[in-house]
């Protein structure tokens, strides 16, 4: 409880707020009224605009249009420092302490900067609240992840905010660590500030928020209680994709059923651990991507799917476990050597070179030392995979449609002649007819013997073509096997909206 020293909660008003980056509207005409003292969660898929909205409220980003007010005082566009002094506290997903200062001095900075009366007493109170009193004189750089999360919250609370913004503060935590931070936020909100939290972990939302708003492509599409939002058909479609019901394979052999000559072939991950900064987002994941087979890797936002893709490509350094390709360890190789060995990853967001032509984009991905006949063979294979690119070879990448750019992104990966292809959210933001064309092309790739993994938000569509499915939950594999059971809506409910589903069933 911080009511005895805090300034009191404030009401937040967001009126027709938009934010554009060039031609892209990250936030599009959002209206939101939050009563003082409430706790509201903002959820939505990757790229929905959640963090951009939070940054505009915090003054980090200036709205393109619209007004943001705190207790009838306009704060939009005033900048982060002034917004902080106006009563906005901000705790980040990745803790950002002064690493060379002690825990106490980190907390004291905010109290002194905001001229809090009897600052030293207040700092002691905040440290006690956040469970850091016994580590007050320890340097911040010596803290482990849970205490770094506590310190990030303590630094925000030390400014006595009337509005506290929490941007995925539970990211990377599991088990007792997650419970500890949920409990801490619960203590902070008791008679404390108004809280707005952006969060992917459903348990956090269910336990802390009385209201949930959902963003998709920058627009507010749902607003209600956690239970009501979880039952909303539009929200379910956003998270799991439209109900594509194509038939998958009749039977998928379990690992023990694989023929002995196929054991070890393809990409094999064993007890893989990976993350970013101090955060471990993948915990002991084991899976196999087999030649000529499609693996669907599913899971809610924040489950660790993209971190897993980065670990496979070499962008993220493994913290434990092994990765082998056709029996040869590749986890100690740098990213470019993994690519040369036969691993290709199509990252979320396409990332083509817009100023270059389609042909130039493709040729740049071939690698050094490849002879012209082989280059032409690979180009022919790409055009066989995506015939739509054949008439676009001299067009600049930036002039392509979204679907054409995604085909080009996959084509670039194919120019390395991979044995294993991992596609991260290839259907994101595309029309159904375009997604169909993409998936048809990917099935042609698999027919050549390539091991394919699709990390996908359109669950039913990916399950329809998958030979095996994996579900990642909070960084660990919670399901591995036949995709068929996951086509049951009740099973998907439990995977994507677990706690809310159980609450409905017991109500």
UniProtKB/TrEMBL annotation:
SUPFAM superfamilies: P-loop containing nucleoside triphosphate hydrolases. Keywords: Amino-acid transport, ATP-binding, Nucleotide-binding, Transport. It comes from the Bacteria. One of its GO terms (molecular function) is branched-chain amino acid transmembrane transporter activity. Residues 12-242, 267-499 form the ABC transporter domain. InterPro entries: AAA+_ATPase (IPR003593), ABC_transporter-like_ATP-bd (IPR003439), ABC_transporter-like_CS (IPR017871), BCA_ABC_TP_C (IPR032823), BCAA_Transport_ATP-bd_LivF (IPR052156), P-loop_NTPase (IPR027417). GO terms for biological process: L-amino acid transport. Belongs to the ABC transporter superfamily. This is ATP-binding cassette domain-containing protein. The lineage of its organism: Bacteria, Bacillati, Actinomycetota, Actinomycetes, Micrococcales.
């Amino acid at each position: 409880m911080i009511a005895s020293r805090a300034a009191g909660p404030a009401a937040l008003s967001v009126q027709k707020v938009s934010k554009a980056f060039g031609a892209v509207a990250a936030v599009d005409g959002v209206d939101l009224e939050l009563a003082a003292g409430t706790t509201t969660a903002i959820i939505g898929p990757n790229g929905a605009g959640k963090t951009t909205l939070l940054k505009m409220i915090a003054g980090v980003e200036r709205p393109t249009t619209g007004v943001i007010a705190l207790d009838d005082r306009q704060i939009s566009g005033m900048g982060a420092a002034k917004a902080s002094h106006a009563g906005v506290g901000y705790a980040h997903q990745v803790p950002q302490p002064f690493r060379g200062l002690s825990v106490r001095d980190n907390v004291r900075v905010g109290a002194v900067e905001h001229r809090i009366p009897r600052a030293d007493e207040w700092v002691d109170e905040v440290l006690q609240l956040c469970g850091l009193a016994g580590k007050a004189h320890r340097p911040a750089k010596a803290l482990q992840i849970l205490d770094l999360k506590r310190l990030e919250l303590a630094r925000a609370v030390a400014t006595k905010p009337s509005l506290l913004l929490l941007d995925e503060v539970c990211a990377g935590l599991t088990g007792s660590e997650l419970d500890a931070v949920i409990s801490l936020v619960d203590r902070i909100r008791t008679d404390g500030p108004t809280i707005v939290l952006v969060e992917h972990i459903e348990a956090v939302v269910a336990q802390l928020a009385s209201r949930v708003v959902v963003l998709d492509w920058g627009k507010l599409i749902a607003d209600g209680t956690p239970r009501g939002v979880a039952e909303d058909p539009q929200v379910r479609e956003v998270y799991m994709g439209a109900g594509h019901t194509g038939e998958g394979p009749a039977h998928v052999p379990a690992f023990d059923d694989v023929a002995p000559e196929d054991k070890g072939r393809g990409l094999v991950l064993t007890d893989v651990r990976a993350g970013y900064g101090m955060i471990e987002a993948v915990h002991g994941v084991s899976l196999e991507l087999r030649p000529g087979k499609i693996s669907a890797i599913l899971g809610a936002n924040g489950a660790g799917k993209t971190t897993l893709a980065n670990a496979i490509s070499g962008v993220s350094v493994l913290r434990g476990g092994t990765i082998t390709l056709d029996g040869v360890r590749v986890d100690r190789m740098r990213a470019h050597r993994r690519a040369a060995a036969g691993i290709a990853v199509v990252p979320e967001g396409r990332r083509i070179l817009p100023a270059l032509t389609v042909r130039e984009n493709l040729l740049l991905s071939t690698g050094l030392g490849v002879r012209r006949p082989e280059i032409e063979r690979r180009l022919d294979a790409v055009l066989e995979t995506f015939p739509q690119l054949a008439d676009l070879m001299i067009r600049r990448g930036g002039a392509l449609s979204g679907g054409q750019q995604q085909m080009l992104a996959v084509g670039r990966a194919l120019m390395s002649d991979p044995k294993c292809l991992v596609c991260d959210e290839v259907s994101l933001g595309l029309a159904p007819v375009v997604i169909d064309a993409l998936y048809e092309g990917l099935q042609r790739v698999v027919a050549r013997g390539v091991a394919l993994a699709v990390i996908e938000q359109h669950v039913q569509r990916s399950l329809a073509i998958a030979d095996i499915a994996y579900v990642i939950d909070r960084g660990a594999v919670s399901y591995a096997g036949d995709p068929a059971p996951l086509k049951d809506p009740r099973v998907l409910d439990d995977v994507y909206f677990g706690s809310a589903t159980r609450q409905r069933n017991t109500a």
